[in-house]
Amino acid sequence: MATLAVYDIGKQKVMDIEVDDRVFDVEVKPSLLYDGVRTYLASQRRGTAATKNKALVRGGGAKPYRQKGTGRARAGSRRSPLWRGGGTIFGPMPRDYSLSLPKKVKRAALRIALTLKRQEGKLTVLDQIPLNGFKTREIKEMLGRFQIEEALIVTDEKNLFLERSARNIPGVKVLPCDRLNIYDLLNHDHLIFLQSAIQKIQGGLLS
Fold it and tell me: What is the value of pTM for the model shown?
């Protein structure tokens, strides 16, 4: 079993906890990380870009002019893409960009990301972050003690005080453990876990 040190916000060691090797000490497979990030980013695309093709442009019911005798090229509709104000040829249309990935692969990618953070020494566990209000300064001071500038803070449940206190700090994001994803894990240099979130994370990734 791997062991992680637990600190308080003053950077004083409180205890050591054992974590499951099946979550924090697995074989690193870069291809799974790639698939996980690619799927996450694709799912964030809204796919709402749209243009009007010949069928969607208003007007064009009548033939613009007679077929022969005008000296001009024949034309059947004012909605032709060749005309000003006509439809667009092969323009973007609303579509779904999302990709699917098996749950087992998503969980495996998360386990690999957690393993990498632990191996790189960029995983910190805190016993708690006590806040009685919106205290951005307290969060900045805490990160300064650990010499951390950019971090993802993972909590066991939604914490309004912590989320709002940290959201104005560049490079810092707070997520409840049920919203943990591969992109945010890899996109932040450091990972901070609340001790209460460790068990939830391990249970979710091993189920």
Answer: 0.82
With respect to CATH, is domain 2-45+98-206 assigned 3.40.1370.10?
Answer: yes
Which band of pLDDT confidence, cut at 50, 70 and 90, is reported for residue 160? confident
Residue 165: how many other CB atoms lie within 10 Å? 22
Return the ∠ at Cα 150 (arms to 149 and 155), rounded to 5°: 120
Owner of token pair 């799927």: 39
Intervals of CATH 3.40.1370.10 along the chain: 2-45+98-206
What is the distance between the alpha carbons of residues 141 and 206, in angstroms, rounded to a whole number? Answer: 35
What is the DSSP pairing of strand 2-7 with strand 172-176?
unpaired
Distances (CA, A) of 111 to 135, 149, 173: 32, 24, 20
Which token pair is 67? 């077929």
Please check whether residue 113 is in contact with residue 201, taking contact to mean a CB–CB distance below 8 angstroms. no
Q: With beta carbons less than 8 A apart as the criterion, state whether 1 and 21 touch.
A: yes
Strand 190-194 with 151-155, pairing: parallel
How far, in Å, are 74, 119, 167 from residue 31 at the CA level?
56, 18, 32
Which of 44-53, 89-98, 159-168 is predicted least confidently? Answer: 159-168
